[in-house]
Write a structure and sequence with these properties.
Layout lengths: L2 E5 L4 H12 L3 E8 L12 H15 L2 E6 L1 H17 L6 H20 L4 E3 L4 E4 L6 E4 L16 H5 L1 E2 L7 H10 L21 H6 L7 E4 L5 E5 L27 E7 L4 E6 L7 E12 L9 E5 L7 E8 L3 E11 L6 E6 L2 E8 L1
Parallel strand pairs: 1-2, 1-4, 2-3, 4-7, 8-11
Antiparallel strand pairs: 5-6, 6-17, 8-9, 10-11, 12-15, 12-17, 13-14, 13-16, 14-15, 16-17
Helix pairs in contact: 1-6, 3-4
């Protein structure tokens, strides 16, 4: 029997994680992480209700529940980076950093102070192998696989991690929750960035970054509209441009964001989903992190440049300690600076880096 701390979010996945471990005879301690304090009274920030749900889960399972506040660590390690990236015109992925810096660093350290043997979460991923050479594998449920968000974990972190849901599908998890009579069995999954919740993204960002409107232009320089601030747009974006009725070279074709000119504060827009400026045959990434041995130059792998994307066949054309360059067999659509590219060897998640 092991002593296991489970990160309980108030959702069905982490609740079933705790139930499964309890069923296996382990000593389970549930911990609710508070990572954001600025909006305790905002209806879009459901932390209060989530904590009440965690307490209800604890009552059903008969386990101890603790609340721990990581708001300061989150502000310093995740949110500051999030704002810096938007200022630089990139589109960051804070969930990746939250896993490596908060859940499996600050939270793991807390769990170890409780004399825990392991930290378990409701992530859909699998771990395999002995300590020091463990591998992070995709989940059985391809629709829920979250290995993409875990690629920055190192061997020390995954040595004390457990992902009990990795071999289950989401419908199976729901059914287990019903069988266990967990109060969150039918609770819908949360969406949006953790600290933003489901509020309008622009309204949230305006509180921290100044608005700087500017022209929307075609690659040839023709002004077709006005943007509300480069930070509000991401490559490949179609909705919310407000220029659907503007005529271009292709009459009736939808407009997409294809680039940002920070120096001139211009948003580059193009017509057509398959416009050449939206297609990328190669990319470079930095801020690299590898779970095990790094990939080799000349090696062929699968890569995801965004969550839920199918693995794209690629070749490593260069790699050193600071940078990796990839060439894809087929052009990739709307590859976005600031997002992560994650490499796979079949089911095995190797790691990755931040797209430049």
């Amino acid at each position: 029997m092991s002593r296991i701390v489970v990160g309980l979010s108030g959702g069905v996945d982490s609740a079933v994680t705790a139930w499964l471990l309890k069923q296996q005879g382990h000593e389970v301690i549930g911990v609710f992480m508070k990572n954001w304090e600025a909006d305790d009274n905002d209806p879009n920030c459901p932390a209060r209700q989530d904590f009440l749900d965690v307490l209800a889960i604890g009552d059903v399972l008969g386990i101890e529940i603790e609340l721990v506040n990581f708001s300061r660590e989150y502000q310093e390690r995740v949110f500051a980076y999030f704002l810096d990236e938007y200022r630089a015109g990139r589109t960051p992925n804070p969930d990746v950093l939250c896993n490596s810096e908060i859940k499996f660093k600050a939270f793991l350290e807390y769990a170890l102070r409780l004399d825990a043997d392991y930290l378990a979460t409701g992530h859909y991923a699998r771990l395999e192998g002995e300590t020091g050479v463990r591998r992070l594998l995709k989940a059985v449920d391809a629709n829920k696989d979250q290995s993409y968000f875990l690629y920055r974990l190192d061997q020390a972190q995954i040595a004390q991690a457990l992902f009990p849901l990795g071999g289950l599908t989401k419908p199976q998890v729901r059914e287990l929750a019903r069988q266990a009579k967990l109060p969150v069995a039918e609770k819908r999954d949360s969406t949006g960035i953790c600290f933003i919740g489901e509020r309008p993204f622009r309204a949230f960002l305006q509180r921290y970054l100044p608005i700087q409107p500017g022209p929307m232009v075609t690659p040839e320089g023709r002004v077709v509209g006005e943007h509300q601030g480069l930070m509000y747009y991401t490559l490949g974006q179609r909705q919310g441009l407000g220029i659907g009725g503007v005529k271009g070279a292709e009459e009736g074709a939808p407009w997409f964001v294809a680039g940002k000119d920070l120096a001139a504060n211009r948003l580059i827009v193009v017509q057509g989903h398959d416009h050449p400026l939206l297609l990328t045959h190669a990319l470079s990434a930095r801020d690299l992190s590898w779970i095990g041995p790094p990939p080799e130059a000349g090696g062929r792998y699968g890569a995801k440049t965004r969550y839920r994307q199918r693995d794209a066949a690629c070749e490593v054309v260069h790699i050193d300690g600071n940078e990796i360059r990839l060439r894809f067999d087929e052009p990739q659509w709307a590859v976005t600076p600031g997002q992560s590219v994650v490499l796979y060897d079949g089911e095995n998640c190797l790691g990755g880096g931040v797209i430049q």
